[in-house]
Design a protein that fits this description.
Elements (H helix, E strand, L loop, with lengths): L4 E5 L3 E4 L4 E3 L16 E9 L4 E8 H6 L13 E7 L12 H14 L2 E5 L11 H14 L9 H6 E11 L1 H15 L6 E7 L17 H15 L26 E9 L5 H13 L5 E7 L6 H4 L4 H15 L7
Parallel strand pairs: 6-7, 6-8, 8-9, 9-10, 10-11
Antiparallel strand pairs: 1-2, 2-3, 4-5, 5-7
């Protein structure tokens, strides 16, 4: 086999001259759990036969039990909030089936007592941007095809409360979550999305957003390289592509198609100023919803996934859960 390396982008991938792509992390996968693991059951369902793409669904085990004997739950039915999750990994690595994402989404589902649908999308470099955005949107549409209770997937028909739909993601997935909410607004997605969780978003641009943003030329070049060489080589404006340069571009947020947004940033994350700039831009945009910002000063990028049992990660999990359940600051 051809072993000559054409390009290498650590820690993500190597590309060989014969076109083969070797991912250097985020390749491990674990199967879904049809039997309750940690009080959650999960299964994989194909949403795009054309591209061979699936979603992984997660359901609290007690919901499946309650189905068989009527529990005295407040709703007199089994409807649960629905979380649509878009994973991170620089558009290049990871999947809903990676241990890191399987375990985190399962924990969210258990803690928030919600149904979650974690989206698989085509990844760069084999499928450069905008494939991942197109796939994520087609998954959202597939999920919403169940809103009247007659979609192809029984768990969504039976358990999803379409008045309480949330989209969330981290890093590249947070970037895509924003764009899904923008598209939901433009296309008048119905029912309306309740909330969007933007966690450590991968937003960037050629120029720093403020004097506290990363000034280091090498570091800025490194991030630009991931976008321009691997993730989105077809972008006309490089890192100033409005898909990436969400904060610095003149894109209008006023039509964001949801009622509330949670923006989470970490003080030692290279994207921290972008995340804070995003929340500020959203507040000034004329969009009428609520913005909540969570800052963890002493932590780095996706610390809650790297070390999920740490005190700060558990505290953030609690905030994420409150955002979904409507407890805490959100008054219903």
């Amino acid at each position: 086999m051809e072993t000559e390396i054409a390009s290498e982008l650590l820690p993500f991938c190597r590309i060989y001259k014969n076109g083969r792509v070797e991912r250097l992390s985020g390749t491990e996968i674990i199967p879904p759990s049809p039997d309750a693991t940690n009080d959650v059951v999960s299964k994989d369902v194909t949403y795009s036969p054309e591209h061979n793409l699936s979603v992984r669904l997660f359901l609290p085990h007690k919901s499946t039990c309650n189905n068989h004997h009527n529990s005295n739950n407040n709703n007199n039915n089994n409807k649960l909030p629905l979380l649509i999750y878009i994973h991170g990994g620089a558009w290049i690595i990871e999947s809903p089936f990676s241990p890191i994402y399987h375990n985190y989404v399962a924990e969210l589902v258990k803690s928030a007592n919600c149904l979650a649908v974690s989206i698989q999308y085509r990844r760069a470099p084999e499928h450069p941007i905008p494939a991942s955005y197109e796939d994520s949107w087609s998954a959202v549409q597939w999920i919403f095809s169940h809103a009247d209770g007659s979609g192809p997937e029984e768990w969504i028909n039976e358990y999803a409360d379409f008045n309480r739909v949330f989209i969330g993601g981290d890093s590249a997935g947070a970037n895509m979550s924003h764009h899904m909410a923008m598209r939901a607004g433009q296309e008048k997605l119905n029912p309306r999305i309740k909330g969007v969780a933007i966690v450590h978003p991968a937003f960037w641009g050629t120029d720093p957003v403020d004097e506290h943003d990363v000034q280091d030329v090498e570091m800025r070049r490194g991030i630009a390289e991931v976008w321009e060489k691997i993730a989105s080589p077809n972008s006309v404006n490089g890192t100033d592509d409005p898909l990436f340069n969400v904060v610095g571009s003149d894109s209008d947020f006023s039509g964001l198609g949801c009622d509330k947004v949670l923006v989470a940033v970490a003080g030692k994350d290279v994207f921290v100023r972008q995340g804070l700039g995003y929340a500020e831009k959203l507040r000034k945009s004329g969009w009428g919803g609520d913005v909540e910002v969570v800052v963890e000063e002493e932590e780095g990028h996706v610390f809650h996934l790297q070390n999920p049992s740490s005190e700060n990660a558990l505290r953030f999990l609690e905030r994420f859960v409150e955002f979904i359940t409507g407890s805490g600051t959100d008054v219903l």
